[in-house]
Amino acid sequence: MGNRQFAGKRVLVTGAASGIGRRIAERFCETGAEVVGLDRLAGEPGLPFRLVQVNLADVGQVEYVCKGLKAESTRLDILVNAAGVLRTGPAEDLSADDWQACFAVNASGPFYLLQHWIPVFKKQRAGAIVNIASNAAHVPRSGMTAYCASKSAMVSLSHCIGLELAPFGVRCNIVSPGSTDTPMLNSMVGGNDGYRLLVTGLPDQFKLGIPLGKIATVDDIAETTLFLASDLAGHITLQDIVVDGGATLGA
Length: 251
Fold this sequence. Notes:
The protein is built from 7 helices and 7 strands; from the N terminus they run βαββαβαβαβαααβ. It starts with 9 loop residues before the first strand and ends in an 8-residue tail after the last strand. With 251 residues, the protein is α/β, with parallel strands linked by helices. The longest helix has 29 residues. The protein folds into 2 domains: 195 residues, Rossmann fold; 34 residues, no CATH class. The protein is globular. α1 crosses α7. Helices cover 41% and strands 14% of the residues.
């Protein structure tokens, strides 16, 4: 992909303070885009893009931020919903807060943003949306009920929005990562030893392992996202690309 592939493009990326969202935002900057990141956290100093703090689960905050961004420019070329929350545990042990937190960030947040920017995309009759879901939306995961259900909701939301926007020339696709080297995964599995178990498999959790024999990097996910947002994917919409080294075995 060319070094200036997205020169002059205005890009909005959620979850941009860390992990996958941050790397996606950085890669868009590196390819010439004007990037605005959204995140509940302030982020580290020295990010190459502007980061706006917002709780995406709060519809009022989302409205306030979107109105401010529209006041700066009524154009938006690319929207990437990468923010995510993971709460784990057996279904009977999950609290109402666990359940609601996953849906609020993983499904409702993208919906709130899309409601504000869909009219912009329709008016432009151009643009691309990429939603970051999970391979957990494709296969059941023991101890991940709230996360799986919320990411499945995000996938369905993406397909419906994509169908509505297709007549306007706007594409909407999904990237579904598997286990990826991020602070969230590291803290969940306990570092390199946990990564090795994910690669070889966890039969008690019905995880078969990763055929490619490695954990994904944030660049693996970012490059797929940039491809789907680019003109190279100009006839691709309503698709869900699973980036998990074969862990779902084509499910």
